[in-house]
Design brief:
Blueprint lengths: L1 H28 L14 E4 L2 E4 L4 E7 L2 E6 L5 H11 L5 E3 L4 E4 L5 H38 L4 H34 L2
Antiparallel strand pairs: 1-2, 3-4, 4-6, 5-6
Helix pairs in contact: 1-3, 1-4, 3-4
């Protein structure tokens, strides 16, 4: 029984790590006034009929704090890349100069910064909900074990351990959100 409990807790912790990883990925996509190549993650380009991530058809580099440069490996990919960026609606218009695509990030207004903070808070709340759902599933497993002969004390200890792991990951979400909020709100 102790082996099964440790397996449940290890599985729970693994799922929670994935939830944190997802949160980190989503937060990097939210721009904080600085150019970041990860802003373009998730944008798919039509590459001769098959969808490809933009970073697999072009070099993406940061020219300065507010400018991204996209240099396609093939010149005829300029138009499809430009169309994919416009279709992704990330709030930045690409500028095609015939060999590169440049993206100039406008400075963030106070209103836009607050919007981005709200967006980060929403992502954080999604992560917290996911973590709580993982906790609920782990506690359900423990209750099933209790029905199958696990002692009440062992079940309570296991539930306490599950709650401690949950608290640890909820506080990690809070740390990520506060650091991203500082990053967004700094001018």
């Amino acid at each position: 029984m102790a082996e099964e409990i440790s397996t449940i807790i290890a599985t729970e912790e693994d799922h929670m790590k994935k939830a944190i990883g997802h949160l980190e990925t989503e937060l990097t996509k939210i721009r904080a006034g600085k150019a970041n190549p990860q802003m373009l993650d998730g944008i798919v380009v039509d590459y001769y009929g098959s969808p490809m991530p933009i970073n697999q058809v072009a070099n993406i580099s940061v020219m300065d704090a507010r400018t991204l440069s996209i240099q396609p490996w093939e010149k005829n990919m300029l138009q499809p890349i430009e169309r994919a960026i416009i279709a992704a609606n990330i709030g930045i218009n690409p500028q095609n100069d015939g060999s590169n695509i440049r993206m100039f990030l406008p400075p963030l207004t106070e209103e836009r910064r607050k919007e981005l903070v709200k967006k980060c808070q929403a992502e954080g709340e999604h992560s917290k909900v996911a973590i709580r759902n993982i906790r609920r599933d782990a506690i359900e497993h423990i209750k099933k074990l209790q029905k199958n002969g696990l002692s009440e004390d062992a079940a309570k200890d296991a539930e306490t351990n599950v709650q401690q792991v949950t608290d640890k990951y909820i506080s990690a979400v809070e740390k990520h959100l506060s650091s991203k909020e500082k990053e967004i709100m700094s001018v």
